[in-house]
Amino acid sequence: MLHPRNLLQAIAVLSLCLTLPLQAEEFDYDPDNGEEINEICSGCHGEFGQGGKDGEYPRIAAQPIEFTINQLRLFRDRHRKNFAMVEYIDERQMPEKDMYDIARYLAEIKLKTQMSDVDENAPDFDAYARLLETKMTMQIPKAPGDIERGKKLYNKECDSCHGKEGLGDHKKAVPMLSGQYTNYLWKQVKQLRSLERIHDVDSPNDELLNEFSDEDLRDIFAYMSIVDD
């Protein structure tokens, strides 16, 4: 028989579990639903989640599933401000199941970093296929900075969470940094430093990025801009 104190602890843990959002693995994936939802997302983020306008709309393709779901929840609950997202993200229009479908659909999109070599004068050249390949190729402009210093800083300070190549971590719901628009990354730095955007919901006053100088981040982003995904 449980000691009364242990019983209270068990009840508290159970209550917490019941109030937590459903995790992604509890849903059956519906790729058709994910594709349909992406038609709405593509208006800003591109047909293949490639983003656009030099990072005004970030790349969302290939981001970890749980990371995307967590960001959608933050938008929904107004913990992350974004007026463009407000009309699409309430519980009626995008329940948890829809969040999972679009997050997985985007996570499975593979964007290239280089166009394939083709002869555009060849008789079998497919112009439409070439157009699609162009949309699915991410070529982030090389960012200014000391790449070697940025690599050392990244390996020391960042890779334990964001991965060796900056591709994020699907198990920890950590976003990818390589292949993301540098302008967008700088915008997020500003929001995180001002606490306009939360780095960690469990530590809303986390000032992690304040430990880095602008020069440090410039060099890290320079390194990230040349890492192939």
Give a short synopsis of this structure.
The chain is mainly α.
Topology of helices and strands:
Elements: H1 4-19, H2 31-45, H3 65-76, H4 83-86, H5 96-107, H6 127-135, H7 147-157, H8 159-162, H9 182-193, H10 214-224
Helix pairs in contact: 2-5, 3-5, 7-10
Task: Please give a structural write-up.
- The chain has 229 residues and is an all-alpha fold.
- It is 46% helix and 0% strand.
- It contains 10 helices and no strands.
- Helix 2 (31-45) crosses helix 5, helix 3 (65-76) packs across helix 5 and helix 7 packs across helix 10 (214-224).
- Mean pLDDT is 86; it is low at 1-22.
CATH topology of the largest domain: Cytochrome Bc1 Complex, Chain D, domain 2
| Straight-line N-to-C gap | 54 Å
CATH superfamily grouping of the largest domain: Cytochrome c-like domain
Oligomeric state as shown: single chain
List its salient traits.
single chain; 229 residues; mainly alpha; 2 domains; 0% strand; disordered N terminus
